[in-house]
Every structure is written in structure tokens, then in C-alpha cells.
Amino acid sequence: MNAIFDVAPDASARLPYPYLLFLGDAVEAGFAKTAFGVRDWAGDKCVGEFSVGATVTTGLPVMTPAEAYAEGARAVLIGVANRGGVIAPAWIASLVEALEAGLDIISGLHNRLVDVPELAQTAARLGRRLIDIRVPPAGLPIGTGRKRTGKRLLAVGTDCALGKKYTALSLANAFAERGVDVDFRATGQTGIMIAGGGIPMDAVVSDFEAGAAEVLSPDAAPDHWDVVEGQGSLFHPAYAAVSLGLLHGSQPDVIVVCHEPGRETMLGLPDFKVPSIEETIELNLLMGRRTNPAIRCGGIAFNTSAMNAAEAEALMEAESKRLGLPVADPIRRGPAFDRLVENCLK
């Protein structure tokens, strides 16, 4: 039997599930955001988790690959989004074990599964699938800056891994609940796994970033909204390039700034401080006006998962008054979130 090596960005439309989520050796929740995202937005497709010494957990049952296969799992989904998107040598024995237990492997990392000899050889011997999500389509154009029809919202952030995907998904759902014609546009591996399609923006060559975003959110009916998943932060020394290309190419009419209260330094770069919300609004609007002079900020999305309800509500109310914009946690929802949604749609 021959292994099947899938490298199309729409491979998620035919992903084998249920999933066993693999957490690798992650010690920070931010680097396991793929696992958390799939758990939260496609939890009915997950049976458990396993790792090689990770200290974070999704809360799903811990299983060996053989146990997961017996429970119905059909693939290991690599739930780690580490620096550089690499398949760590320490993971390979466990991933080989998963193949031998009868599971395919799904990855959103930059390293392709097929390029790891042990995985490629084992998959070929057993007829298992190695499925890479983080592969952009061929033939992407350069950006044109041409004004497109339809409306667009982009989630932007003060930092990485603090809720841009969750915010975009929550807003897209809320728009649909109000009868708005809307599409969620996935720009990262986890979003693509959830949505069943999209373009992995951080795998696109920089010259084609803006063009890829234009392809992702094409001309549409005047009342149609594309809610675009954000990537990185304009302030992050490592990831600002993808953020700027996405901002120019998605040409948003509205941005929503995502922020985690209490986070003081940039993810993975402790020598760099997280910018203020005001700085983030100002810079995104300044750069965004290049392709959409009418761009505006619709509000702020807080990730208050580390706070209790009373603390979160008090902080969001105070920050809303200070900033003069709606501030809400898209996961907690409630009246504050309703105000955020209405301000984005006005």
C-alpha cells in the first residue's frame, strides 16, 4: 500500500476524524492554540489528547494512540503551533506509534510531514495518510489595492495567540444570527481545520501576502460581510510582516482589536512589551488607510479567560468608557458583546 500525502489547503474538507489531539511538549498554552481551537470549535470531532511531556492540557481524556483508535479516532491532529512551526525530533517516535496504531496524521506546521523520513517511510509501509494543511495555493497574485465590493472585518491584535480567531468566529456567528450574509475567512491552520477552507497566510511568500488576502476575500454583494481571521501583530518583531500583508490585502472596513489584559510582554519575546490598545488602533488604522481610507475601529475584544466574571465585567466597562468604544469578551458574550456587534455593523 502507498501513503497518501495531501498538501492542499482545502484538505480539511476531507480530513479523517474523530481526532486524537497531540500536544507535543508544549509548556505554554499559546503554543497549543491549535488544539484548543479545534477542541472549542470542533469538539464533537475530538476523542482525547496525548503528548510527550506537555504541561498544558485541553481537558480531554488522555489516551494512547491505540486506545484512541479503539474509541473511534481515525487521525492524530498536531495541536501545537510552536516557534517556526517545526516537527520536533522528540515527537517522532510518538507520531510513528500513532501511524502503527492505525491513525493518519494531520499537521498545520510549516515542516511538512512527508519530509520527515521516519514518518514518510512508516506511512508508506502502512498506507496511512500524512496531511499538511499549511500549504498555500499555487499561482497567487501580487496585491493590487483595488477597491472591492462587499464589506470586510479584520480581527487584529496587540500580540499573537490572544483570541483573534475566536473573535472572528464569534463575530461571524453573531452576524449570521442577525440575518447578515457573512463568511468566516480562515487565514491560519486552525481556522482552516475548523472552516474547511482558507489560505495559510504565514506560509505565503511575502510579496504575495496582500494578493492572497485579496483572493481570500473577493468582490461580493454590497451587503455581504467577510469576517477575516487575523494573524500576528503589527508590533511583533517576528510576525509583523504577515499582519501588514493581511491588513493591506483584506482591505477591512472595520477592525476589532484583540487584547489579553495582564499580558505584559510579546509571546516568545520577553524583552518586548505589549503595546497599548490605543497604539494598536492608531497603527492599524494608519496602515489600513493605504487600501481603505474609510477604515474604522469597531471595538475591542478582550480575552478575559484568566479572570472571574465580576472582574471581567468591571474591567470591560471601565475600558469601554475610557476608550469610547465597545469592549467585550466574545466568548462570554452578553450585552457588551451585543454592543460590539452592533457597532461593527452600523
Characterise this structure.
It comes from Sphingosinicella soli. Residues 142-335 form the D-glutamate N-acetyltransferase-like C-terminal domain. This is Putative NAD-dependent epimerase/dehydratase family protein. Residues 57-136 form the D-glutamate N-acetyltransferase-like N-terminal domain. InterPro entries: DgcN-like (IPR011669), DgcN-like_C (IPR035086), DgcN-like_N (IPR035402), P-loop_NTPase (IPR027417). Helix content is 32%, strand content 18%. The termini are far apart. It has helices at 33-41, 65-70, 92-100, 117-126, 164-177, 189-195, 209-216, 240-250, 277-288, 309-323, 335-345, and strands at 4-6, 19-22, 46-50, 75-78, 104-107, 129-132, 151-157, 182-185, 225-228, 254-259, 265-266, 269-273, 296-302, 327-328. Helix 1 (33-41) packs parallel to helix 6 (189-195) and helix 3 (92-100) runs parallel beside helix 4. The model is unreliable at 1-13 (pLDDT under 50). With 346 residues, the protein is an alpha/beta fold. The protein has two domains: 4-132, Rossmann fold; 151-345, P-loop containing nucleotide triphosphate hydrolases (Rossmann fold). Strand 13 (296-302), helix 10 and strand 14 (327-328) form a beta-alpha-beta unit. It has eleven helices and 14 strands. The strands form three sheets. It has a six-stranded parallel beta sheet, sandwiched between helices. A six-stranded parallel beta sheet has the order 8-9-7-10-13-14, sandwiched between helices. A two-stranded antiparallel sheet has the order 11-12.
